[in-house]
Specification:
It is a single chain. The chain is of the alpha+beta class. It has one domain (28-166). The chain is 16% helix and 43% strand. It is built from two helices and eight strands. The strands form two sheets. Strands 1-8-7-6 form a four-stranded antiparallel sheet. A hairpin with a 5-residue loop joins strand 7 (134-147) and strand 8 (153-166). The longest helix is centred in the first third of the chain and has 23 residues, at 2-24.
C-alpha cells in the first residue's frame, strides 16, 4: 500500500510541477500591436500592456524618444518593463543590461535616413529573450526622417508592427 501511495504522490507532484512550469512561462501570442510615434506630439508616449492569456499584465511595452541638445528626436527606443517598474528601470529587451550602440529595438534617425531597408537591422527585426521565454518581432512599416539645421537627422514619424509571442508556442 505504501508503494502505491508513493507512486500516486509522485504522479501528482509531477503533474503539479508540469503545470507550475507551464504557468511560469507565457503561452502563445501575447500581443499584436501597431506602435506609433510622432515628433509633433512627443509627450504622447505609446504604451500598451502585454498580458497573459489569462488577462494578467506581465509587462508594459512602450516607445520612448531620446532627444539631442536641440530637442530633436534622434532615437526612439522600444522598451519592455515589468508593470510595476519605475520609468528609469532597465529595458528588458537589453538582455545583459550592458549593451551599447545601436540595437534592434532602437530606431535611430541617422540609421533610418537612407530608408528602412538600408538601415542596420532592416525592416524586420527580432529579439529573443530566452530568460523570459519571449520572442519580440518588429516590422518597421513607416519611418519619416528629416535633416536638422545642425546636419543631423530627426524622426518625425515612426510606425512599427509588433508581435510578442512565447518561445513555447
Amino acid at each position: 500500500m505504501t508503494d502505491r501511495l508513493c507512486y500516486t504522490s509522485a504522479i501528482v507532484f509531477a503533474v503539479f510541477a508540469l503545470f507550475a512550469n507551464a504557468a511560469a512561462r507565457p503561452q502563445g501570442v501575447l500581443l499584436r500591436a501597431t506602435a506609433t510615434f510622432s515628433s509633433k506630439l512627443p509627450e504622447n508616449h505609446w504604451a500598451v500592456p502585454v498580458k497573459s492569456t489569462a488577462g494578467e499584465t506581465l509587462y508594459m511595452l512602450s516607445l520612448e524618444p531620446d532627444f539631442d541638445i536641440w530637442h530633436h528626436v534622434v532615437t526612439v527606443e522600444l522598451v519592455l518593463r515589468y508593470p510595476d517598474a519605475n520609468p528609469d528601470s532597465p529595458n528588458l529587451l537589453d538582455t545583459t543590461g550592458k549593451l551599447h550602440g545601436l540595437q534592434p529595438y532602437d530606431f535611430a534617425a541617422a540609421d533610418l535616413a537612407q530608408g528602412v531597408g538600408e538601415s542596420a537591422f532592416g525592416k524586420e527585426r527580432i529579439v529573443v529573450l530566452k530568460e523570459l521565454g519571449l520572442i519580440v518581432e518588429m516590422t518597421v512599416s513607416r519611418a519619416e526622417v528629416r535633416p536638422t539645421a545642425n546636419g543631423h537627422y530627426q524622426i518625425d514619424t515612426l510606425e512599427v508592427q509588433i508581435a510578442i509571442r512565447s518561445t513555447n508556442s
